[in-house]
Inverse folding.
């Protein structure tokens, strides 16, 4: 059985859900081979997990392959990714030290507030999606600036798989 855990599949699923659509074919799947039914139920499980995600504080279910929400008290590379992302969009900028403390929580809340998200200071699926989308937009908007393209591309390469979406 093949699992849909690649970033491209996750992005496609996110886009489908954002449009209010489902990737489920409807019906009971009659006429499908048993192998295809397994794929369908794996896809449905992933969709259900994403559809039930909250404003930023809830994350993927155990075993879904989705990164956990990033919150105060966390540390490491995933926190540096959050700090780098909020520094792209917020002023004043915060120190990129890999520790999710009060300063990072406040910067995340500012980012959330500026983007119409619930201001809980937690980077969950909705906040992560928004960060990814805005970094991609900045990259496209700055195609004339090779340094900017490299900076945004590096964030995408280093961080996209670590940020909940």
């Amino acid at each position: 059985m093949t699992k849909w855990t690649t970033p491209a599949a996750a992005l496609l699923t996110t886009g489908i859900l954002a449009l209010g659509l489902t990737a489920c074919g409807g019906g009971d799947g009659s006429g499908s081979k048993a192998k295809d039914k397994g794929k369908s139920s794996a896809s449905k499980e992933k969709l259900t997990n994403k559809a039930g995600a909250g404003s930023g504080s809830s994350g993927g279910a155990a075993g879904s392959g989705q990164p956990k929400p990033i919150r105060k008290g966390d540390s490491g590379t995933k926190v540096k990714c959050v700090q780098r992302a909020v520094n792209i969009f917020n002023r004043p900028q915060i120190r990129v030290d890999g520790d999710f403390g009060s300063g990072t929580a406040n910067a995340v809340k500012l980012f959330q507030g500026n983007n119409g998200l619930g201001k809980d200071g937690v980077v969950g699926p909705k906040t992560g999606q928004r960060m990814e989308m805005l970094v991609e937009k900045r990259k496209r908007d700055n195609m004339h600036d090779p340094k900017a393209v490299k900076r945004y591309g590096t964030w995408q390469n280093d961080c996209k798989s670590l940020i909940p979406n």
